[in-house]
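Sample entry (302 residues):
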Amino acid sequence: MTSARLSHRGGSHYREHMRVHGPVREVPPPRARDHVCWVFRGEEELDAAVLAFARGGLDRGERLLGVGDRVVAAVRRGGASLGDVAALAAAGTLQLLSLEEAYAATGAFSAERQRAFYARATRDARAEGYRGLRVLADVSGLAEDPGARAELARWEHVADEYIARGPGMSAMCLYDGDLTAAALDAVTAVHPQVHAPGAPPAFQVFFDRHRVALVGDVDLVGAERLARVLATSPVEGGNCTLALSGLGFADVAGCRAIARWVRTLAGTGVRVELRDAPPLVRRAWPLLGFDRWAPVTFTTAV
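Predicted structure, serialized as tokens:
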């Protein structure tokens, strides 16, 4: 039974206006709540992405925060395209930190400490008259460390919730294309916009206002990763909505991962709504017995 596939190809268009998501070939136009995963190969591609994203932030009146030695070097190499880099730094419009200064300075690396760090930096930017904070961070060093990778993926997911619902942070998270497939799979799955030529994520989980959205395809290979992502989703209050109209297909393992998450939340008193679930998922839920131990409410957006 685990090889069964639950398909739905008609759900690629949301009935509701959703946060921009999906694969990107070029640096997207600057918007509020940007959260882009950019897998790069080589210095030239890194520089182009960093400078384009930074220019977008300046155009929007945001403070720029560059994190990581390669980002700092990219700004210094191509800073002329941003204007007077020294003047931007002196004015506080541009801040540059090493990976250690941004991530190790808060203590042992954890999603909660990083959220506090960036929340404070965003509040400071807003208080000083900027429209928000635009972060450009090369965190490849954390991704290549198997001991930090799971917490990094959790942080990226927690960060996306803050970006989607917070007061004005946007981010481009840069990852070296020479990282292992396991490392790249872990981080690309938790960004709404992804540039990963040749290795796009099978599925993406991201936040849209107060909802969690799942788009793409989930099979037996990806089900465990989906379970890990959902388990780290910040949930507040007594209700949670999982938007599924972008779900292409899910096999039984994928559905079971969702059901186990639902059951865990139910144990804490949280009720789950599955919004715009594919028809076969709706039919399979009682057939597979999930309705008995992972009750949900199926709804359709209008």
